[in-house]
């Protein structure tokens, strides 16, 4: 594999890398989409739960379109799923295609069930995803370390980075997006596909998001591990701020003036009362919201804005071309379960993630390594 040019963010945990084998195949990597709402049982739209094996969502839509005559633009979906592994997700399509979809057959794509609903499925209409991951060649000593890493993440949460899927096979989507945004062209040529341009620019926004969240992880580590004077000197923070940060017992430190959001759903707001919001953060009522740069993004203030400005200075002059938004910088595992089969040297885990979070990002933080860097992977 070629070296990625995308920024590699700091991982949440600091233990030594854990050795094991991971493969995104249909037995060892399973994703099940959790809908945002139940189907009504009536209406002009079919709601189909599909199961696909080693197919991207777009490939699945193409197969369905080819067999049934449904135009791809008529098919609704809540989110894109990994190509590798076994995944299930919901699709919506016009009711008139009920007979065609019920007769659909393909070795890598199954229609699990069909119901009816009033509205077409839109991107974002999902609660999240449940994941099952099996690791192989796991020694007993490493199984203990995996269990401890999972317990730690379950307790403290994890940095909610964008995953490698966002940045392309060679990690060059972000640089391509920067070039399109700043020059209007890619390698001197204008792209004819506006959706591709938007996707590449979003990869650039995502890369900057990862850099900001990584800086917050760095600050959190430094505050925990070094003295007040060392933190003051390294970051040029004043004494009052450093004392406020060091008084926080949780790993991820909340900053005055940063943008927070109700977790897992809710509006954004500024951190005006640090003590109150830290208490709510530790109870998982709220979380830190990272920036996806753009004109409509909720603004931070004070020291939080100063840190953002350093990271996002290169995109600020172009933000009028972007809508922008906020995304969880810090997130949590739900419904965590894991077990170790010593005889087979298999370690299995399952958990639920809110929409937009990446299981591969969580796995990298558990293993404390790039999951595609070592030959075992």
Automatic annotation (TrEMBL):
Residues 157-343 form the TRUD domain. PROSITE patterns: TRUD. Pfam families: TruD. Gene3D superfamilies: TruD, catalytic domain (3.30.2350.20). GO terms for molecular function: tRNA pseudouridine(13) synthase activity. It catalyses: uridine(13) in tRNA = pseudouridine(13) in tRNA. Its EC number is 5.4.99.27. The active site is at residue 82. InterPro entries: PsdUridine_synth_cat_dom_sf, PsdUridine_synth_TruD, PsdUridine_synth_TruD_insert, TruD_catalytic, TruD_pseudoU_synthase. It is an enzyme of class 5 (isomerase). Keywords: Isomerase, tRNA processing. Responsible for synthesis of pseudouridine from uracil-13 in transfer RNAs. Belongs to the pseudouridine synthase TruD family. This is tRNA pseudouridine synthase D. It comes from Campylobacter majalis.
């Amino acid at each position: 594999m070629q070296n990625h040019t995308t920024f590699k963010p700091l991982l949440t945990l600091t233990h030594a890398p854990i050795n094991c084998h991971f493969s995104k195949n249909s037995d060892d990597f399973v994703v099940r989409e959790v809908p945002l709402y139940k189907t009504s049982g009536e209406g002009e739209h079919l709601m189909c739960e599909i199961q696909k094996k080693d197919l991207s969502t777009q490939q699945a839509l193409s197969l369905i379109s080819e067999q049934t005559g449904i135009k791809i633009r008529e098919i609704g979906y809540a989110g894109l799923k990994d190509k590798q592994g076994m995944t299930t997700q919901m699709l919506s399509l016009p009711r008139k295609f009920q007979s065609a979809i019920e007769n659909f057959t393909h070795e890598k794509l199954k229609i699990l069930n069909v119901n009816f609903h009033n509205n077409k499925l839109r991107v974002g209409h999902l609660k999240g995803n449940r994941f099952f991951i099996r690791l192989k060649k796991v020694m007993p000593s490493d199984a203990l370390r995996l269990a401890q890493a999972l317990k730690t993440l379950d307790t403290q949460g994890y940095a909610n980075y964008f995953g490698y899927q966002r940045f392309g096979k060679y990690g060059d989507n972000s640089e391509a997006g920067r070039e399109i945004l700043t020059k209007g062209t890619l390698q001197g040529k204008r792209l004819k596909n506006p959706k591709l341009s938007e996707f590449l620019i979003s990869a650039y926004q995502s890369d900057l998001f990862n850099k900001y969240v990584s800086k917050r992880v760095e600050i959190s580590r430094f505050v925990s591990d070094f003295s007040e004077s060392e933190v003051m000197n390294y970051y040029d923070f004043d004494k009052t701020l450093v004392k406020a940060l060091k008084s926080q017992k949780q790993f991820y430190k909340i900053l005055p003036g940063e943008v927070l959001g109700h977790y897992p759903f809710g509006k954004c707001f500024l951190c005006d009362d640090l003590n109150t919001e830290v208490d709510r953060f530790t109870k998982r009522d709220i979380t830190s919201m990272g920036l996806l740069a753009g004109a409509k993004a909720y603004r931070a203030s004070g020291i939080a804005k100063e840190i953002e400005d350093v990271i996002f200075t290169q995109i600020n002059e172009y933000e009028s071309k972007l809508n922008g938004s906020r995304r969880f910088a810090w997130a949590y595992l739900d419904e965590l379960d894991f077990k170790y089969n010593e005889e087979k040297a298999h370690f299995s885990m399952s958990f639920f993630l809110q929409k937009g979070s990446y299981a591969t990002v969580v796995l990298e933080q558990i293993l404390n390594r790039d999951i595609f860097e070592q030959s075992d992977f």
